[in-house]
Amino acid sequence: MFTPKTLLIIGAGALGSVTACLAARAGHRVTVVDPAPIGANASGVAAGMLAPAFECLLDRASQGRYSLLREARDLWPQLAADIGLELERSGAMALGARDQAAECADALRALGADAAIVAQPDGRWGAFTGDDWRLDPMVALMRLRKAAVEFGARFNDDLTAPLEADGVVLATGAGLTPGDRAPELALLSPIKGHILRAAGDFASGPVLRAPGVYLCRAPGELVLGATMEVGRNDTDVDRSVVARLLVDAQVLTAGLGVLDWRASAGVRAATPDGLPMVGYSCSGDAILAVGARRNGWLLAPMVAGVVLDTLEGRRSSLAALFDPARFGR
Ligand SMILES: Cc1cc2nc3c(=O)[nH]c(=O)nc-3n(C[C@H](O)[C@H](O)[C@H](O)COP(=O)(O)OP(=O)(O)OC[C@H]3O[C@@H](n4cnc5c(N)ncnc54)[C@H](O)[C@@H]3O)c2cc1C
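Above: the input record for the complex with flavin-adenine dinucleotide. Below: its predicted structure, written as tokens.
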């Protein structure tokens, strides 16, 4: 028989917000605590790509994980429909000479992704996949919160209010220092990322990708990302890093330098193997939902599902893969 639990979720980023939404919908009494304004976190600055194909191709830490990331992506359509969130499905593309595009398309197909090569108006060729999608992170955070509240969840910015809870979920991103409740947080390392946004009347299209840089093209906004600054845990914008990102982006398309970019930075939390830690801390005091590195949006419904399984005493098929104890005590 289902027994509703009282659940305290600390952190209202992608992982905490999706968990809140799913747990409240399942009938649990959920309170989310986060002193930061909505979106003032890595989740709010992220590009919002749900990109199993190109992440596996271009990011070494994701290599060999296409099936897992695609499974995570496939949890989004139902959740998005439930909360009234639009998913952008224009795909993604790497540009180059024809033989480079063909080689890239072969590599995408070898992962299991769909791929085709497409001639471009500027004479280049694109290796296109429809496997990679995108969401708008700020819209997603707002829709998740609204849906969670409609299911009965409460959001609270007061950390001092005492709260009785059957379960505590730590979804604190790179923000919480390790303590007795969760010594495993010491395993997380920060990776700062600069990202640029320009507002305007742009044509939408597939995300353009190259090693180290991508350009998301939505009507009304371009998003250019993102640096991977390992070990940095501040969100200061460094003008020289922004300038370098714009130079790197020249491989994608010309003319980006003249746009009016707004720069921001966020901090990803990464585990030693690049997969999140989800499950009880060795202290037994908290369920961890942290360490999703550069795929926190992509992985959020999957992580939230494992949290729910843990809370409700089911053994998830992903429990071992995400077990916080996998790095040893
Ligand atoms: C530049 C950039 C681009 C990215 N692009 C993508 C992308 O395209 N696709 C993708 O899937 N991922 C992307 N990511 C990664 C993604 O943003 C993260 O993996 C994800 O946001 C992590 O979510 P989170 O909920 O774990 O952490 P966060 O979003 O950091 O949220 C943690 C929350 O916990 C709160 N908190 C911390 N400590 C406490 C405390 N003691 N008490 C209460 N609250 C606390 C914080 O205020 C914060 O709101 C990107 C990241 C960056 C930086």
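Notes for the reader.
The first helix runs from residue 14 to 25.
The radius of gyration is 20 Å.
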